[in-house]
Structure formats: structure tokens, C-alpha cells
Design goal:
By secondary structure, the chain is mainly alpha-helical. The protein has 6 helices and 2 strands, in the order αβααβααα. It is about 40% helix and about 5% strand. The longest helix is centred in the N-terminal third of the chain and has 10 residues. The radius of gyration is 14 Å and the shape is globular. The N terminus is likely disordered.
Length: about 120
Amino acid sequence: MNDQGPNFYDQVYAVVRRIPRGKVTSYGRIASMLGHPNAARAVGYALNALKDKPDDPTFAPVPWQRVVNSQGRISIVNREHGANVQAKILRSEGVVVSEDLRIDLKVYLWEGLNLAEIEEIVK
């Protein structure tokens, strides 16, 4: 049994899997939920790493498209997956994405997990 708990990338994937369809959150919010408020880039790196595992069913259910930058924009990190692809998937989930790749966080922001859910992920 692993006493160290899941690694940071696995924790990121666990949080992202909980973002409901039709909602988005930011890299920084995920980092903060995991107790690493300065690790927004690391969250981006974790999601970017998914492109290296396209045939691994373990990573298929991670809805990476639901993570945007703190201003509600599809960011450069996700351009690896294709900003227009991300926008198209979000639109199919009911999220309004403007032509300049903005999402209204007042409408579509997922507030995140409660403390008990976070503790379950990071233990």
C-alpha cells in the first residue's frame, strides 16, 4: 500500500473528474483546493500530460476541457489540445464560449469541492 497518497497529477485528475458538465473552473482554483495555491501552472502541466496518454483508458474520463484560466479564457496551455476543440466540446456541454474564447465565470464557474471531498483526494 502506498503511504504517500496519490501524486499531484493524480490529485488534479481526481478534482477535474468532479467538475460537472456545463461548468468550468480555473487552474488556480484546482491548485488551491489541493493545498498548493501557487501551483496553477503545475495543474496545467498535469492536464497537458493527458495528450501523451490518448489510449490509456485510465485517463480517458478526465474532462480537461472544463479547466480555463482565472479570467475565464481558454488558455495557451490548452492550445496543445486545440483551443477550438476545447471550445467546441464546452459548447456541446452547454457552456457559452465567445468568439475570443471567453466564458462567463459568473454563470459557469464551478465553486469546487467541500473540505471532506478534498481530504479524500489528498490523503
